[in-house]
Write a structure and sequence with these properties.
It contains 16 helices and no strands. The chain is an all-alpha fold and 422 residues long.
């Protein structure tokens, strides 16, 4: 009885019993710490080179456009070739991008246009990793462990990025400058590459393969046949358009110029969001997700988006920290449930393409969100922009829950095949 109780207390750790998943998770965790450092270093570098939110918007657009353009190809590639190799190449390209930024910054030669060019390459490489990762996880753990595997992912992501990474980023930028911070992030990608080389090749399920175009169309047809997929993708598209650009562009600006804070203050605010995500991931990993998981996903994401309005209402850094905790905590709850639903319900041979369609559709308007953040804030004010983004984004998210067929899998209906959707 005591042993059984102890096992129940550590359910979140059960996927780590699988060697390849454990190695992948370790490498990704270390790389995510570097991503957190990059969040702070990149924002501080941009606002050092140019104090305008417009420059931060330009960098956001430069990072998002190539990712949007290449993520569909990334999904097709992950369903045709070794998924481990796809992730490996993505990490290697980003490693060299960060080395380039580090060398330019340490040599005091970095200019805004150079930063934008390197970030574009970085964003293009980033488009290949998520579909391959989403598709490879179900091949590394048992189906009964998918909730825990996804909760573990959502546990380490904020712990590494927003708690360890952003706090470390503030310290590194203050101590050794942005060049040293970029170099540190490059080192974390090198570790991730080493871990990927240690796991066994992970090709997709065997089967007949058509052309790249035919494979892409079959993935699109499956998504179109299932409204619980396409409606969620589209709802994310408009929610991200409304709130993601304003939040990422204007939150550092508000701390630096509105509240006259430091890079360390930005790190603390982002860390609070990471801590909330960690606690939520622990809770969901232990208790599982509700049977009506689509409703759970939409309610969680609606509340997360609404909390963005708290950024605009805050007048002190501690209030920003509370808002950030709410945004990230509710988002994490929805993400664990959503990732588990996809991996359980979508056929393995299609999972890479379905994930890439999700990424493509949901972030397709993200460059526009970044581009509009600065001019809208200039016209309406930074605080009004953040409040409006949160409220409108929440409304849009909740509306899509009531699209016909979205809640069908909540009621036990099986996903439709592409042929049934025609």
């Amino acid at each position: 009885m005591e042993d059984a109780g102890r096992a129940r207390r550590v359910r979140l750790l059960t996927p780590l019993a699988h060697r390849d998943f454990r190695v992948l998770w370790i490498g990704m965790s270390i790389s995510l710490v570097g991503d957190g450092v990059l969040l702070v270093a990149l924002a501080w570098q941009v606002y050092t080179l140019s104090g305008s939110p417009g420059a931060m918007s330009a960098v956001g657009v430069a990072r998002a456009v190539p990712q949007v353009a290449l993520v569909l190809l990334g999904g097709v590639v992950s369903d045709r070739f070794d998924r481990r190799r796809t992730m490996l190449i993505s990490d290697l390209v980003r490693f060299f991008c960060l080395l380039t930024l580090a060398a330019l910054a340490l040599g005091d030669a970095l200019e805004l246009w150079q930063l934008i060019v390197v970030v574009m390459v970085y964003g293009g490489a980033a488009g290949f990793f998520p579909p391959a990762y989403d598709a490879v996880v179900p091949t590394l753990v048992l189906k009964s462990e998918l909730v825990q595997a996804n909760a573990l992912d959502q546990f380490v992501r904020p712990a590494a990025v927003q708690i360890g990474g952003t706090a470390l980023g503030g310290i590194l930028v203050a101590a050794i400058g942005t060049g040293g911070a970029f170099a540190f992030d490059a080192l974390t990608f090198a570790v991730s590459v080493g871990c990927l080389l240690c796991i066994r090749p992970k090709p997709p399920p065997a089967g007949d393969r058509g052309s790249l175009w035919a494979d892409l169309l079959s993935g699109l047809a499956y998504v179109r046949a299932n409204s619980w997929l396409w409606a969620t993708f589209v709802s994310a598209t408009f929610a991200y358009l409304l709130f993601l650009g304003p939040a990422e562009v204007l939150l550092p600006y508000l701390i630096k110029n509105g509240l006259h804070g430091s890079a360390a203050d930005l790190g603390v605010v982002l860390t609070s969001g990471g801590l909330a995500s960690v606690l939520v991931a622990l809770a969901v990993g232990q208790t599982g997700v509700p049977s009506r998981f689509i409703t759970f996903v939409y309610v969680s994401w609606t509340l997360a988006t609404l909390a963005v309005a708290g950024y605009g209402l805050a007048t002190h850094s501690w209030q920003l920290a509370i808002a950030c905790a709410a945004v990230n905590g509710f988002e994490t709850a929805g993400l664990v449930a959503w990732a588990t639903a996809k991996q359980r319900l979508v056929p393995g041979a299609l999972l890479g393409r379905v994930s890439s369609v999700e990424w493509f559709v949901s972030i397709s308007l993200l460059p526009l969100s970044y581009a509009l953040a600065a001019p809208v804030a200039a016209a309406a004010g930074v605080r009004a922009t953040l409040i409006g983004a949160g409220v409108l984004g929440a409304v849009v998210t909740l509306v899509f829950l009531y699209v016909p067929g979205v809640r069908s899998v909540d009621r036990g209906s099986a996903p439709r095949t592409a042929k049934e959707g025609t």
